[in-house]
Amino acid sequence: MSVTITVNGADHALDVDPSTPLLYVLRDDLELNGAKYGCGLGQCGACTVHIDGKPAFSCLTPVGAVAGRRIRTVEGLGSAGAPGLLQQAFEKEQAAQCGYCIAGMIMRAQALLDRIPDPDDAQIRAHMQTNLCRCGTHMRILRAVRRAVALRKGTQSAQEVRP
Amino acid sequence: MSPVLSNLSRRGFLAGGALVVSFALAPRAFAQLAGGGEGGAGPAVVAPDLKGSLKSTPWLDAWIRIDADGRVTVFTGKVELGQGIRTALIQVAAEELDIPPAAVTLVTADTDRTPDEGLTAGSHSMQDSGTAIQNAAANVRMLLAAEAARDWDVPADQVTTGGDGRLRAPDGRTLAYGEVAARLSLHVQAVPDAPLRKPSDYRTLGREQPRVDIPAKLTGGAAYLHDMRLPGMLHARVVRGPSVGTSLQSPDLDTVVRMPGVVTVVRQGGFLAVVADRQWTAIQAMRHLQRAAYDRAPQPPLPADGTGDAVAATLKALPARDISIMDTSEPAGPAARTVKARYTRPWISHGSIGPSCAIARYVDGTMTVWTHSQGTFDVRRVVAELLGLPPEKVHAIHAEGAGCYGQNGADDVAADAAVIAKAVPGRPIRLQWMREQEFGWEPLGPGMMTELEAALGADNRIVSWRHAVWSNPHNNRPVGAGGVLAGNEADPPFPAPEGKPIPMPEGDGSRNSNPLYSFANTHVVYHFLKDMPARVSALRSLGAHLNVFSIESMLDELAAAAGIDPLAIRLDHMRDERARDVMQAAADRFGWSKRPKGDGRRGCGMAFARYKNLGAYCAVAMEVEVDRETGRTLVRRAVAAVDCGQPANPDGVRNQIEGALVQSLSWTSREQVRFAPDRRASFDWSSYPILRFDDVPGSVEVVVMDRPGAPFLGIAEAGQGPTAAALANAIADATGVRLRDMPLSPDRLKAAIGPV
Ligand code: FES
Ligand code: FES
User: Fold this and answer.
1) Average pLDDT over residues A120-129
2) Domains in chain B, CATH or no CATH each
3) What are phi and psi of B42, to 5 degrees?
């Protein structure tokens, strides 16, 4: 059966069982590495992507349910050559050990920044609560999110003063 | 309809060739040294005068090759586990060759390409491989300089380098490394005394270096084994009962082989797997097969509940072999105060965020296995024995996985994938375990207990110290087919080898049971328990987690009994200057002397250990706040100080210690594998909760001691023990309640505090 999904702005027509979790379609059909299999149970956040701007567990989302909706993955935020704001901040803070959780962390954090441009520490912690990291990189992840907030403010004020 | 590949017994596999088992008989004494200090096999020492892993692989071209165009390739038998070793080793090589780090390509463990350095474990990588690469690079630089000197007809010691990959003559002439290397053979043995660069000249070592593996991890680059896609690759799932010791009775193969997209079912003895063209199909087929009822093999009883008493009762019921670890007697004054205590730790899961994965391909009689095991060469040994292939027909290549923190399912899944690939020749097989399989089948970190009795004299000096530890072996790393699940499931089965203790000074359950402090009359005994109620193996820091927790808790118990400051009692009994320095550094940065006094709610604690008494020194101080109504404990701030000799990448060191601290807080405060009578009962993140963002410390600061040019000391496991004890000590300072059974959970603390 054919399903058409929109990922990072591009449409993909796929011949796939619509009950297949979006995670496997992203990884195996679209060859996107960002979303990871961590639990398949909605418990860890390693598979986090955005669906219509909201963070979602791609491991629990049947691909048939997202036809026509906007899907964004960490690849949609930037690349190693041209990293997005959060990716830059994570790089600057060296916020990864094994890094397996990190793409999910970045997508989770991006959803917060999309909603609240200047979150405080308690808001960041509460929002990130969903996602697990086993390496104990939490302190750096928190620093990276704060740095992204600061970076954006810096960029904005830089833009504001520009004539 | 898909065929069921069955009745391929091991004897069937073996018909074509002799079974090679000699590797399993490699001398264990070498294995301890070469294998990363945590079992595993390892190559023999052939050059004892050389340093690090050069002892077993002395040839320079095994470590370093320089192309004519100047490109440098460095080979290591160690692997990246998320600990940042790739970047650190590049820094070591770049420094000692005196070239920019970007000029170095590093190849990690690959049985066809790199030296065998045993396991990447036991915080040995910098000591083994870092030291080998450092000395090999110094040798290579020396040879290059000598060759250039000959060319220029100047004394060799007049030839210098400038960090740019060129040799310089006193008159300003230069030669590129590649040009000179083209005239040399590096297939020569290292010499032990090639001069190392002076720390004052360092350009790369000890400088902050962004990790080379991080950009891909942030952007969805191909960073993991899990991300490999080979042409024609099929997806497999292995089918097992709910946890170790169970077996499915009669799975419904008939339905599954008819499912569209199922390529085949592989059944050999007790091993069962399904292969499909898509992952989701393989998962659905696996789920269908798993509906079968299961049996459980008889095993020693598992601890019925998670209390310290249950852990202790389970362990004490097992037959013990008593090993004396330390036995000193000297004259000391009479005891004025004696404190006795029992400490326990339950079984703990590695809990990798990414379940284990492997890819295997069998073509033309050669098996290639991509694995994230810590023992790439052991994967070759295991797969060769399991499949009856000569070892040279098995090519094992490391590719990165999720953090493992010890022996998780990585070795098992590699063997599983190889069994499947052998049955489906020509097609690469990607196998990933499911979350519940990782929890149910990986070896756990063993449950342990200690009993301590210590006495203070009237002068507040410790006059006697007794420490007894009960533990299963932590050293069940597979070196042959019996060490992996697929081996145990083969027909006939390869029996699991009997667990053995790791001798001191590394130790396993005994690790760090020998205090670094100078106590009079110290008696330490290891009650080694070979019978394992639950499948167990190495978990980051092995026995050091509980042994350091016990020693450092006891010191605070003594200090509290005598009214001594916890820092003072430690410094009073410590002669090692570097140990004193890290304790003082942590205390100074923390503001220990001005810390708030425990007030029922807030309190501070500290602890120290030198990992294995051989590795990095680490002291941790923290301030906690306890909610007396719920027992919830928050770490407001934590400070760690670490001395790892010359740090390669100081930010890499901080990253590891921060991670160790947060992970150890999770283990110590809330983790415990639950058992039902017939199986494990922790199978997901709700039945095995770990620390989340709400409960991580307010801040963590790491002080890295400056030790220019001092030998490398591994740091990856140094923080686990001190963090655990600092937490217990801070809780005791805050509340007056001493918790001795891990996890130091809110429920236990609330019950111990009593009605508010
Ligand atoms: S993999 Fe989706 S939440 Fe864990
Ligand atoms: S960095 Fe390894 S799980 Fe988060």
Assistant:
1) 97
2) 3-211 (3.30.365.10), 225-296+350-441 (3.30.365.10), 308-348+445-474+509-753 (3.30.365.10)
3) -165, 165
A43 in ligand 1 pocket by Cβ < 6 Å? yes
- pLDDT computed for residue B36 by the predictor: 54
Last residue of a domain, one of A19, A42, A76: A76
Polymer length of chain B: 756
- pLDDT of A155 > 80? The answer is no
Q: Which of B86, B207, B218 has the highest number of chain A CBs within 10 A, making it the mutation to test binding with A?
A: B218
Distance CA B385, CA B411 (A): 14
Pairing of the two strands B294-296 and B246-248 = antiparallel
Q: Can you list the residues of chain B whose pLDDT is less than 70?
A: 1-40
Among all bound ligands, the one having the nearest atom to the CA of A130 is 1
With CB atoms and an 8 Å threshold, state whether B684 touches A39. Answer: yes
Mean pLDDT of A122-150: 98
Tally of domains within chain A: 2
Angle, CA of A125, B87 and B667, to the nearest 5°: 40
Mean per-residue pLDDT for A109-125?
A: 97
Q: What angle do CA B486, B490, B492 make, to 5 degrees?
A: 150
Q: Band the pLDDT of A153: cuts 50, 70, 90.
A: confident
Q: For chain B, how are helix, strand and coil distributed in percent, rounded to 5?
A: 35, 20, 45
Atom number of ligand 1 nearest to Cα A58: 2
pLDDT at B33: 42
Q: Tell me how far apart the alpha carbons of residues B544 and B474 are, in angstroms, rounded to a whole number.
A: 11
Q: Which residues of A touch B222 (CB under 8 A)?
A: 33
Same domain, A6 and A66: yes
Distance A122 CA to ligand 1 centre (A): 24
pLDDT by residue (tens digit) across B132-146? Answer: 999 999 999 999 999
- pLDDT at site B180: 97
Which CATH number covers residue A89? 1.10.150.120
Looking at residue B1, what is its pLDDT? 37
Q: Clarify whether residues A102 and A156 are in a common domain.
A: yes
Phi, psi of B217 (to 5 degrees): -70, -20
Residues of A in contact with B352 (CB under 8 A): 100, 134
pLDDT score at B24:
29
Helix (H, G, I), strand (E, B) or coil at B625: strand
Which among B219, B224, B351 has the least Cβ separation from residue A134? B351
The answer to whether residues A25 and A51 belong to one domain is: yes
Chain B contact set for A89 (CB, 8 A): none
pTM of the model: 0.94
Domain range holding A149? 85-161
Do A63 and A90 belong to one domain? no
Q: Is the CB of B222 under 6 A from ligand 2?
A: no
Give the number of the ligand closest to the Cα of residue A61: 1
Q: How many CB atoms lie within 10 A of CB B368?
A: 21
Residues of A (105-124) whose Cβ lies below 8 Å from B:
106, 124
- Provide the shortest C-alpha distance from residue B700 to chain A (in Å): 7
* Chain A: closest CA distance from residue B224 (Å): 8
The confidence score (pLDDT) of residue B305 equals: 80
Are the Cβ atoms of B434 and A28 closer than 8 angstroms? no
Q: Per the structure block, which two tokens stand in for B285? A: 């087929």
b/e code B305-328 from CB counts within 10 Å (16+ = b): ebebebbbebbeebebeebebbee
User: How many Cβ contacts (< 8 angstroms) between chains A and B?
Assistant: 179
Q: Which ligand is nearest to the CA of B402?
A: 2
